[in-house]
Model the fold of this input.
Amino acid sequence: RITALEDNTLQALDSAVKIRNAIHSAVASACGGIKTVAYKENSKRVYRAVYNFLYDYYDISEYADIPKVKYDEALSLIEKWYPNYDLQLSIDLSNNCKQQEMDLDED
Done:
């Protein structure tokens, strides 16, 4: 019974901060950085996609509800996460359109 309690104990605040930071890194990486057009135009959708992935995977309503024993697994999943095709296309279009505008300005 104690093992079951330990397995279902929620993560400490420090762990929740690390997960939030990992999510931020995943979003920034997916958008090509925080200073990109894609981040500005798509980051809300990308954050939503990462959070929804975690909520669905762990059947929870907020990331702080991830059990303590699943913490390392959650960090690994976040690091390996990538956007679905439609979201990636939107990111690519945002970044490529801006790059094309910059290329035209240089001519």
Observations:
- The radius of gyration is 17 Å.
